[in-house]
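Deliverable D2.4 — example input (structure tokens):
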């Protein structure tokens, strides 16, 4: 098979602003936005993405918040319509609400949130003209996330984060509505712990351990490929879930810190993503990094 080649050139710049207004000691309103200018393969465009949020202090240590925002994503140069007209840029709309617990200097903090994200103008294959696109696609991601951090003793820090994500196609030309989005695990869990000795001859010596779990997910479902003529999307195969363990050792003396971090400590063989039916990425094997840093 010959190699596939494609090239495009783009430039994007933007400016943004944000302001927060307080109404008394409990209610705060945040609003802002971003202007973007894009030059993609000589196609020039601009867009504005607003954001609005509200934050309310239920108690001095608990805050409820909600936000609404829009996002902007230019279409790639190789995504073209059959008649040559520029395809509308992609947009997103995100609604989020949640609670935050904790205060500056406290040993425990936590947050919980629910969210609803919709992407519109998602390119989908033109059913009549091969290798051309329409922008009738829409995708929706709904879920919740919780995270917490705890310092039970001086030098000891524990953290945990969990995300549940239901991401699927809601409008498409070829892919059935309800199809799960590719490379998106439904469950994601991350746990990390670190301890640094605070006294004694080995003061400043630290160790950390982190565990990441991703549940099983479907491969790239952005296109339809029927390999054997049974009418099913063979590009929609499953990638198994996996657990990856990272570890590290560090030593701090005065303003200097020396650290050795080992990624994929158990040398787990896993598949983080797939770009299409024939290209499945293999996760990085065990690797390590030595770093030296200084605090000024």
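Example output (designed residues):
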């Amino acid at each position: 098979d010959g190699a596939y080649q494609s090239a495009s050139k783009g430039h994007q710049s933007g400016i943004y602003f944000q302001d927060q207004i307080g109404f008394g000691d409990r209610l705060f309103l945040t609003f802002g936005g971003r202007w973007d200018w894009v030059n993609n393969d000589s196609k020039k465009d601009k867009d504005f993405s607003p954001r609005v949020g509200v934050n309310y202090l239920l108690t001095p240590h608990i805050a409820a918040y909600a936000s609404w925002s829009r996002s902007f994503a230019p279409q790639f140069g190789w995504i073209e319509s059959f008649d040559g007209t520029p395809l509308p840029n992609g947009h997103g709309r995100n609604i989020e609400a949640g609670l935050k617990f904790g205060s500056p200097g406290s040993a425990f903090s936590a947050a919980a949130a629910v969210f609803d994200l919709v992407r519109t103008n998602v390119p989908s294959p033109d059913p009549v003209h091969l290798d051309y696109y329409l922008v009738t696609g829409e995708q929706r991601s709904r879920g919740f996330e919780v995270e917490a951090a705890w310092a039970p003793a001086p030098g000891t820090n524990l953290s945990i984060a969990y995300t549940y994500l239901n991401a699927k196609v809601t409008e498409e030309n070829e892919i059935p509505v309800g199809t799960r989005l590719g490379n998106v695990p439904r469950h994601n869990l991350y746990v990390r712990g670190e301890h640094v000795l605070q006294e004694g001859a080995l003061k400043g010596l630290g160790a950390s351990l982190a565990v990441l779990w991703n549940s099983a997910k479907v491969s790239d479902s952005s296109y339809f490929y029927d390999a054997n003529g049974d009418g099913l999307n063979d590009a929609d195969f499953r990638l198994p879930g996996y657990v990856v363990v990272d570890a590290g050792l560090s030593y701090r003396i005065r303003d200097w810190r020396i650290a050795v971090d080992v990624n994929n400590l158990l040398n787990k063989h896993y598949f983080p993503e797939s770009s299409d039916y024939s290209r499945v990425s293999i996760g990085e094997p065990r690797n390590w990094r030595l770093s030296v840093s200084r605090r000024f």
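The mean pLDDT is 88.
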